[in-house]
Amino acid sequence: MNPKQHEIDPRQLLQQMLLIRAYEEAIVAGSGTGKIPGTCTSVGQEAAAVGVVNALAGDDLILTNHRSAGHLLARGADPGRLLAEVMGRSDGYCRGHSGSLHISVKELGIVLTSTIVGAELSLAPGVALSQTMLNRPGIVVCFFGDGAACEGSFHESLNLAALWNLPILYVCENNQWQAFVHRREATSRDHIADWAASYGIPARTVDGNDVSAVLAAAQEAAAQVRESGRPYLLENWTYRTRGHFEPDDQAYVDPAEREAWLARDPIAMCRDCLIADGHLTPAQAAALADKVASRIAVAQSFAEASPFPDVSELTRNVYA
Length: 320
Ligand SMILES: Cc1ncc(C[n+]2csc(CCOP(=O)(O)OP(=O)(O)O)c2C)c(N)n1
Ligand SMILES: [Mg+2]
Hints:
Layout: H1 10-32, H2 46-53, E1 61-65, H3 69-74, H4 79-86, E2 110-114, H5 119-133, E3 140-145, H6 152-163, E4 168-174, E5 177-178, E6 181-182, H7 193-196, E7 203-207, H8 211-228, E8 232-237, H9 255-262, H10 266-276, H11 282-305
Parallel strand pairs: 1-2, 1-3, 3-4, 4-8, 7-8
Antiparallel strand pairs: 5-6
Bound molecules: thiamine diphosphate and magnesium ion.
């Protein structure tokens, strides 16, 4: 572990990754039986979410995309309320009106989740501009995918952020896939970080499956954004090991590529490293997994018991 990470208990990082995995596996299982609507999971990408979110301060603001459960859970979202939202129930964070793809949680600084690819990129400069105009301390963190980076809004966003000196930490989760298209078929460069240089934005690519590497890189990047008031782009090189959404048979995936990434599972890597470093015994690791499983079971019961919103709410918060 990097000495800069002294204030964060590495077991906390493992526990958060286990929570995200268990939460998403519950969604996968529930969508198989029709109990829970199918959604986009981030299985395989947990280190990228946990490493970045743990580098943030309480007053930082987050904008994210359709693969957001990891960001929300790492930020401290309650899995029961999150699952209730996905299931369209009234105890969900947005009273069941958002589903899984548009959740915002004001008290956690989650300004936006959007399934409109690139929407978080086009809104980030506006949010950051308001932070600077109102003299607020929090930086803006914008999570987006390699597919979003191929859209015009990515370039517009970086251009304005550089021109207006906006405190934005751009975090690209390069998970090699853009729905059912491999990034090799859609992206002129392997690394999205390469594109930042043309806007004069410092950037770095990090092993997105190594939670301590992500944390260290994100701490450095966030500190730089805070001190300079200017943007930075961090690219997490990772892999989406499940389908684009549930269900998805992944018939379009090269099995050898997927196998190679499965062998670098971020949770197994972190757990083995903690055991090897003497931070954790195998029995403690198993106990941590059990604790997380019980928490998800409670969350699931909570969400299932939550009522659907009343029909009178149908047009509330709908603007025409
Ligand atoms: C503007 C827009 N175009 C297309 C889609 C359909 N769509 C949803 S997710 C996705 C792929 C996005 O890829 P990426 O940004 O790499 O994110 P990932 O799903 O890999 O996390 C597409 C094309 C959409 N939701 N919005
Ligand atoms: Mg992608």
